[in-house]
Q: What sequence folds into this?
């Protein structure tokens, strides 16, 4: 039974993939999209099928009793059905979707937090009962369309994502005809590593060190080799100690964070670094980051921060 | 989430439906439905949810009850009741679930439409259509935004699109013939009975409901020629005349007739139809049967329409068998037979004999009455002819037929309707049940001639109608059956609307459809096509022109500025209007004041939306143009 199910699911999966590939060719991702004829699909809903059955029944009933009024009712329902096809189509036609305008920083969130994504809609007049549904967010039904639709994306693991194809559908009016479309919008977003509470990190207490020259502190990756207290190193080679100069006296040296951990420790380190990067940025320090994949030179500012965070994300 | 207006509207619809479909519902089912609706109303007010178990139990009970009643009821009525029960119980179960509500709307569409099985008159049909649209509204509520319970203009526009499409389908969509025969079992027949007693037709005469309506195409026959034949009775058992027709379908004689007419018959749950004299052409689902009568192919359970052509002449004899059959006298009325023989000796030919009979009825002081004394003797014809001498058309017809047969002249009794009332608004004839009549046909020279003793006894009956032929007391007796309220008489005024409703809508059938298609084919398509294209072109031109004139004034102003200022210097594409004007000011210092004024006016109009600046712009442009022309 389970085997059958899996086979069936596999087939389904394959079909869906093929369908999406076809859709990708038809509608490549874009930041702005107007729903046109080639994107909209129109087909009777289940209730529409029942409705057609009703029409057929009435037609047979009216023919058999040669009752013109029953036939008239059947024709009325039939023409309603046909007009609904058009009405359902025009309920979505020419609707314009736009991803949120490019901000100074890329769209991002932290792992374990949800992300709100806003889409700007235009040509929303007379468009009703539209539902948005997709794998990435809770389905939403709008009775009348707002100018700005906010999609609450589910929480995800760290990474760089692209907003997936989602479905826009409407049964308005009369629920006989379903008009729908699968939309791919060009909307990348980052899920940065979760910002963890700082524990066992030596960076935090270091900030609280008062302005005293020649303060000693344990060596941290990134500390300059020249500041290592070599005498102490000789005594205790497993605990290197650095001589720290107070910021007021010595020009601040760029902080360097190096991602060294692997496996389970990696995530912990990443989230710690995430917090550190924010701290450095807040304090206006210059910092650099080195990951196995890339190295980012010392700098500061929002753009730099996000570059670093993105590098962390991609570890 | 169900629209809060849904349940109250649905309740109202079902209540109205209950009132409308009374005719098809038995008393107990009406009561049960009433109860269900009442309970639903109470539970809706109290915001209580009804358990599904209760509803299912109720449904089973009702089904059993319906099954037990099945043998006593018409199948169709049972189906109607079943549908209604399902709709009411479905409504009962709805609390806020959309799927239930969807099913309810579906069932109600069907239920409302079955209302047309009961009655198709204009008033009833309008009520049913009203309910139909109420149901459509319910359907709309299901899928419309919850906050908005009213139709918007866009939705009404959709309905307006539906209408012409629906009418086109009705007129042009191919129709099927009936798939299986259905006859209503327990439906009481109305109209003429299948036998005619000596004093028959009394019951009908007291009924002023509509029997049928006729519209003549060209010539209209005189009032005294309007003998609508419906049934022929050939066998007499001393009291009743019974039909003895061999149902041998007969090909109609296809000769041109004088009178061409269309009849719309009210449902009477029989097959017999009405015609004038010898019928020559038929149209519709009808056929000729023996004795020149017309019959429908199936029981008439709805308004039924057909067209005939007659020339108003006597019906032809079909075979010798017919003549023999109509000579049989199984019962004897000695006095009448003696009278017949006497008269026959004096008048040898059938027509002379008929004239003698007319004379006899005239001289013997016969009188016409709706309340004749009861005939209780064995020889009823004798009792009527020689004792009472008072009777109604049934008496005269059967007595005359007896006298003919006794004299050796084949004769039979024909029942049908006589006369009718011309409707002034509609130019059609309306024949009521009270116009029921009976007369005699005797055979002479291969034709069945009409003999109607009522012509002699009560001549006004033919020319003026029944009530004028009666004495005052009898008229009062009759009037008591025709009490009509104010509304009734007002509706009577609008009867002609109902007539055209049945002619144009109810009786529209394949024949007329074929005719329309044929008409379409023969239309001058070339002309129509050119007409349509030219009108489309015209519309396009007007549309473009309107579009142009409605272009924003800003655009027009800009166009005009460019046109006027071109002689002073070309505007580059990348330049804004402002930089262009500044450039012109530098080029033509002489015009700097005008150009600067123009610039400021333009800016104020364009950006500060000061409409009055438009005039200023135009004035300046005019000056500039004039200046240019004087310079040039």
A:
């Amino acid at each position: 039974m389970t085997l059958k199910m899996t086979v069936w699911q596999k087939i389904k999966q394959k079909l869906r993939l093929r369908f999406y590939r076809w859709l990708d060719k038809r509608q490549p991702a874009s930041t702005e999209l107007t729903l046109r004829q080639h994107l909209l699909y129109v087909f009777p809903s289940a209730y529409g099928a029942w409705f057609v059955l009703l029409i057929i029944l009435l037609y047979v009933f009216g023919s058999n009793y040669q009752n013109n009024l029953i036939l008239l009712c059947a024709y009325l329902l039939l023409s309603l059905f046909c007009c609904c096809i058009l009405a359902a189509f025009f309920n979505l036609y020419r609707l314009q979707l736009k991803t949120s305008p490019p901000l100074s920083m890329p769209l991002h969130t932290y792992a374990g937090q949800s992300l709100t994504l806003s889409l700007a809609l235009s040509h929303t007049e007379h468009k009703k009962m539209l539902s948005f549904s997709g794998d990435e967010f809770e389905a939403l039904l709008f009775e009348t369309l707002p100018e700005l639709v906010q999609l609450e994306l589910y929480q995800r693991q760290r990474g760089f994502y692209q907003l997936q194809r989602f479905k826009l559908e409407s049964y308005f009016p009369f629920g006989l005809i379903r008009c729908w479309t699968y939309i791919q919008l060009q909307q990348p977003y980052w899920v940065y590593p979760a910002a963890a509470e700082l524990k066992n990190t030596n960076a935090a207490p270091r900030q609280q060190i008062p302005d005293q020259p020649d303060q000693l502190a344990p060596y941290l990756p990134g500390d300059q080799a020249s500041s290592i207290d070599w005498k102490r190193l000789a005594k205790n080679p497993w605990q290197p100690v650095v001589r720290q100069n107070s910021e007021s006296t010595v020009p601040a040296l760029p902080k360097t964070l190096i991602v060294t951990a692997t496996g389970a420790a990696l995530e912990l380190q990443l989230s710690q670094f995430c917090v550190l990067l924010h701290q450095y940025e807040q304090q206006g320090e210059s910092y650099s980051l080195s990951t196995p994949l890339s190295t980012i030179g010392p700098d500061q500012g929002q753009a730099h921060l996000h570059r670093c965070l993105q590098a962390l994300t991609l570890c | 989430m169900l629209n809060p207006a849904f349940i109250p509207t649905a309740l109202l619809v079902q209540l109205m439906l209950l009132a409308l479909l009374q005719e098809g519902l038995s008393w107990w089912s009406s009561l049960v439905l009433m109860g269900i609706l009442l309970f639903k109303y109470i539970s809706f007010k109290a915001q209580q949810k009804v358990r599904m178990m209760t509803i299912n139990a109720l449904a089973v009970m009702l089904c059993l009850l319906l099954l037990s009643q099945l043998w006593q009821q018409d199948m169709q009525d049972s189906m109607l009741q079943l549908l209604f029960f399902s709709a009411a119980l479905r409504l009962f179960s709805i609390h806020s679930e959309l799927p239930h509500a969807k099913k309810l709307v579906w069932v109600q569409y069907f239920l409302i439409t079955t209302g047309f099985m009961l009655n198709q008159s204009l008033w009833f049909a309008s009520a049913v259509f009203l309910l139909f649209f109420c149901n459509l509204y319910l359907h709309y509520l299901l899928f419309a935004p919850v906050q908005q319970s009213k139709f918007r203009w866009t939705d009404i526009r959709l309905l307006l699109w539906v209408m012409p499409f629906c009418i086109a389908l009705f007129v042009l969509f191919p129709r099927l013939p009936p798939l299986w025969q259905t006859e209503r079992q327990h439906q009481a027949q109305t109209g003429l009975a299948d036998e005619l007693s000596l004093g028959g037709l009394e019951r009908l005469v007291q009924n002023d409901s509509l029997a049928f309506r006729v519209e003549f195409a060209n010539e209209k026959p005189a009032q005294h020629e309007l003998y609508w034949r419906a049934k022929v009775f050939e066998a007499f058992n001393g009291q009743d005349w019974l039909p003895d027709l061999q149902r041998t379908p007969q090909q109609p004689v296809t000769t041109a007739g004088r009178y061409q007419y269309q009849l719309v018959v009210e449902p009477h749950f029989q097959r017999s139809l009405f015609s004038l004299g010898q019928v020559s052409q038929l149209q519709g689902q009808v056929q000729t049967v023996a004795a020149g009568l017309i019959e429908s192919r199936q029981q008439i359970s709805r308004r039924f329409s057909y067209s005939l052509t007659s020339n108003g002449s006597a019906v032809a004899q079909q075979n010798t068998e017919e003549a023999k059959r109509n000579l049989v006298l199984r019962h004897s009325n000695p006095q009448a037979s003696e009278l017949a023989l006497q008269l026959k000796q004096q008048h040898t030919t059938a027509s002379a004999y008929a004239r003698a009979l007319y004379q006899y009825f005239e001289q013997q002081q016969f009188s016409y009455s709706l309340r004749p004394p009861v005939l209780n003797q064995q020889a009823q014809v004798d009792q009527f002819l020689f004792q009472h001498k008072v009777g109604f058309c049934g008496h005269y017809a059967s007595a005359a037929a007896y006298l003919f047969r006794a004299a050796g002249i084949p004769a039979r009794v024909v029942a049908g309707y006589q006369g009718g009332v011309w409707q002034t608004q509609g130019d059609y004839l309306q024949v009521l049940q009270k116009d029921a009549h009976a007369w005699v046909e005797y055979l002479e020279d291969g034709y069945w001639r009409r003999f109607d003793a009522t012509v002699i006894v009560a001549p006004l009956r033919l020319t003026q109608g029944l009530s004028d032929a009666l004495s005052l007391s009898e008229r009062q007796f009759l009037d008591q059956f025709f009490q009509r309220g104010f509304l009734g008489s007002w509706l009577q005024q609008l009867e002609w609307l109902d007539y055209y409703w049945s002619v144009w809508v109810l009786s529209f059938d394949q024949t007329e459809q074929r005719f329309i298609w044929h008409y379409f084919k023969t239309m001058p398509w070339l002309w129509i096509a050119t007409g349509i294209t030219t009108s489309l072109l015209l519309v396009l031109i007007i549309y473009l022109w309107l579009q142009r004139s409605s272009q924003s004034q800003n655009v027009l102003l800009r166009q005009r500025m460019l046109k006027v200022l071109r002689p002073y210097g070309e505007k580059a594409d990348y330049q804004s209007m402002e930089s262009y004007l500044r450039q012109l000011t530098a080029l033509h210092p002489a015009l700097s004041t005008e150009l600067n004024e123009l610039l400021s006016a333009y800016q104020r109009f364009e950006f500060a939306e000061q409409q009055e600046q438009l005039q200023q712009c135009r004035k300046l442009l005019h000056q500039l143009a004039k200046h240019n022309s004087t310079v040039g």
Remarks:
- Chain A touches chain B through 42 residues (CB under 8 Å).
